Amino acid sequence: MTARLQRRLGLYAVFTVSIGAMIGSGIFVLPGLAFEVGGPSMIIAYALAGVIVFPAALAQSEMATAMPRAGGAYLYIDLAMGPLMGTIAGIGVWFSLVFKSAFALVGLGIYLGFFTDLDPMMVGVAVGAGLLLLNLIGIKESGNVQALLVTLVFIVLFIFIGGGATFVESDFYHPFLTADLGGLFKTAALVFVSYAGVTNVASIAEEVSNPARTLPVAIISSLLVMMFVYPAVTYVMVGITPPEILSGDLTPMVTASAQVFPEWMVNLIAVIGVFALASMANAGLLASSRYPFAMARRRLVPSIFSHVGTRSGTPTWSLILTGMLLMGLVAFLPVFDLAKLASAFLLLVLAMICLAQLAFRSSKLWWYRPKFHAPGYPLVPISGVIACLALITQLGTEALVGAGTIIVGGAVWYQVYGRSRAIKESAFRESVRQQGMSRLLGLIEEALNEDSRRVAVVSKRERSATPLLRIGRPLAGSDRESELVRLLQTGEDLEEKILEYEPDLVIGAQTAIDGRHDELPADRDAVLFMGGELGEIRRIAVLGSGGPYDVLKICLAAKLAQAEDASIRFVHVLDPAVSRAQVRSIERFHADVGELCGVPTESMVIESEDLLVALTSAVGDADLAIIGAPRGRHFFTDLIDRIVSGIAPPVLVVRVAAKDEPASLRSFFDRVVASRLTRSDATHDS
Fold first, then answer.
1. Whole-angstrom Cα distance, residue 455 to residue 476?
2. Cis before 576? omega within 30
3. DSSP of 582-635, one letter per residue?
4. pLDDT band at 55; cut points 50, 70, 90
5. Which residues contact 324 (CB under 8 A, 6 or more apart)?
6. How many contiguous H segments (helices) and E segments (strands) does the chain have?
7. What is the DSSP secondary structure assignment for residue 519, as one 8-state letter?
8. What residues contact residue 218 under an 8 Å CB cut-off, 6+ apart?
9. Are 181 and 211 contained in the same domain?
């Protein structure tokens, strides 16, 4: 069954979930590998990695208070930039956390080697199975165990820092940079995975009590604590351990402790190392299992992964999948590769998190109301994106290939499975819509203020031109009618007459040109009148407003309504599967256009699979309908022909001149707006 997760985790439990994901391998396994790469400068590398994480931590803190739901980073990126990027992010952060947990279990097996002769790999697999069982029992039980483990680890770490600091030897810090600055950044990239706890917390947001306060406090405080603890521990570790012993060591805490502490303390640290690594693996399993769960909710993976156990309150099948992958990685992947790949995936995801914050802030979505607003916008998230992407390049070819594989694999999975099922609304699309609407509103306002349009009315005889002149006069401006509205008789010299007069707009009737729609020039804005007699006009229906070519159509409707003392109804038909955000965007656009028109207006946004039926019902009581034709020579597509013949009132078909336009960012932007605002290519010009 699919159900909501239960809010059972308090501030300290959430804090320890984050700390637990950071305090394990980052201290008990990774320093020896980091020292091998960067020497004593690894102390600074840990602090540098924390600084680079900080923009994403602030962004996550903000987004988590606006969307306290399971899925964390994946969910934010999906909602911000759409399901394709969400799929890549979901898979990326899932792999990152599972790789980090596997790294912890490998280290745990090595630490247990101090007390048993069992194979470390088999021990890691067995502990992974035990943690999977614990998480299947329930979130509250798992959270309580997490809090206890982290508390014990902290006590021992502060004893290590305080006691070991009195024994440090300054010679062990020289040379501080064993390589150039590139070595420092490579080390920072390697240890970056130590800070993965910031993604853990957001992923369990739906199970957090009072998320508006708890989440930002837990995320930021845990990061700040570890930005102190990592350099402090590694400072002592480097200062009390000969370099040749520390370099490449996989049990650096035990090795360092053995230099200055009694045997019982060394054994205690080994035991605490087991607890810390178990805590980290548990936190990683707890958090990473929420990503398939959240992706199933968004229809990007099979729905079975959204199943929540009735008694446990945990995502059962998502936990099982994650646990099986975790044990497989422990059994088959080398420890150094686990660390590098986990860091690469995490860097990629944190860059996307910063981009997500930029998308949410710029979109001004009505529902995006975070309780915590991250400071330093937009410079802080922009710097976070740049720093994360730059640091990925320091991890080597294998890590870059791994990150590239995640991107390609996520894109392929989305195309094969998710594209037809996914919820496709995003803050980026909403931002594009809002900016596109703003652009259209400005163009509409300019057109409505224009009072010098030259209008040519094409008709066989003057008497039949009466309704056409009635339509054209408001556009030209009644004060200068004789100059700006001219009647042109149809005939062999019509094209020559049009070239001589050079009108901005040509108006004709289908009967006036014997049904040959292409006789009106394609290089001029044109209006074709169709249907019965044009009687009293009290209501004008504008069909499909919201696309990039609506300026002329809306200007014609507004000026005609002002002249006839009529009202306007904006009609837009959407697919029933459209998002609420898209419906509200179009309604707001209609309202904004209505304020510019200066006449009574109403918005009718209809969700229907049958376009013709919807339009027929929407314009049944209108006296005139206005519809748009695609750019080019011909007025009609098959769909527009059926719409015109299927509705009752007379119709004005508006066609914007076919002009050569540069392939600019603005024209591209307008095409994106059109595709997002409308139901199909046939209707967003209508």
1. 6
2. no
3. HHHHHHHHHHHHHHHHTS-EEEEEEE-S-HHHHHHHHHTT-SEEEEEE-SSS--
4. very high
5. none
6. 28, 9
7. G
8. 11, 14, 15, 17, 18, 201
9. yes
Q: CA dist 150 to 144, 172, 273, Å?
A: 10, 30, 11
Q: What is the per-residue DSSP string for 77-96?
A: HHHHH-HHHHHHHHHHHHHH
Residue in the block written with tokens 């912890």: 104
Domain C-terminal end among 392, 424, 456? 424
Express each pLDDT in 164-179 by its tens digit: 999 999 999 988 887 7
Q: Same structural domain for residues 484 and 584? A: yes
What residues form DSSP beta bridges with 457?
Answer: 487, 507
Angle (CA) 273-173-259 rounded to 5° is 40
Where are any strands of DSSP class E within 630-675? 651-655
Instruction: Say how many C-beta atoms besides its own lie within 10 A of residue 398's C-beta.
Output: 13
Measured CA to CA, the distance from residue 195 to residue 56 in angstroms comes to 11
Map residue 491 onto helix, strand or coil: coil
Residues 348 and 481 in one domain: no
Residues 330 and 286 in one domain: yes
What does the pLDDT read at residue 200? Answer: 66
CATH number for the domain spanning 455: value is 3.40.50.620
What 8-state DSSP symbol labels residue 72?
H
Do 548 and 600 fall into the same domain? yes
Q: How far apart are CA 263 and CA 266, in angstroms?
A: 5
Q: Considering the domain boundaries, does residue 684 fall inside one?
A: no
DSSP 418: I
Q: Hey, which of 187-191, 314-318, 645-649 has the most confident mean pLDDT?
A: 187-191
In Å, how far from its chain's centre is CA 65?
16
Residue 137 within any structural domain of the chain? yes
- Beta bridge mates, 603: 570
CATH of the domain at 92: 1.20.1740.10
Structure tokens at 341: 């790949």
Q: Is 368 helix (H, G, I), strand (E, B) or coil?
A: coil
Q: Which of 424, 459, 485 delimits the end of a domain?
A: 424
Burial of residue 445, with CB atoms counted within 10 A of its CB: 0-12 exposed, 13-18 middle, 19 or more buried: middle
The owner of tokens 């336009």 is 661
Confidence at residue 286, expressed as pLDDT on a 0 to 100 scale: 74
Amino acid at 270: A
Note whether 248 and 321 are same-domain residues: yes
Mean pLDDT is highest, among 513-517, 574-578, 602-606, for 602-606
- What's the confidence (pLDDT) of residue 380? 95
Gyration radius of the chain's alpha carbons:
33
Q: Are residues 172 and 191 in the same domain?
A: yes
Residues 92, 375: Cα–Cα separation, whole Å: 27
Token pair recorded at residue 208: 């957090």
The Cα–Cα gap between 422 and 442 comes to 34
Percent of the chain with pLDDT over 70: 82
Closest CA to 387 of 138, 66, 49: 49
Partnered with residue 492 across adjacent β-strands are none
* Most trustworthy range by pLDDT among 339-343, 550-554, 635-639: 550-554
Orientation angle between helical segments 335-363 and 30-38, nearest 10 degrees: 90
Which of the four pLDDT bands, split at 50, 70 and 90, describes residue 48?
A: very high
pLDDT band at 335 (very low <50, low <70, confident <90, very high): low
Three-state secondary-structure class, residue 543: strand
Number of domains in the chain: 2
Q: Which of 379-383, 503-507, 520-524 has the highest mean pLDDT?
A: 379-383
Identify the domain containing residue 471 by its residue range: 432-677
Write out the two tokens for 685: 């010009």
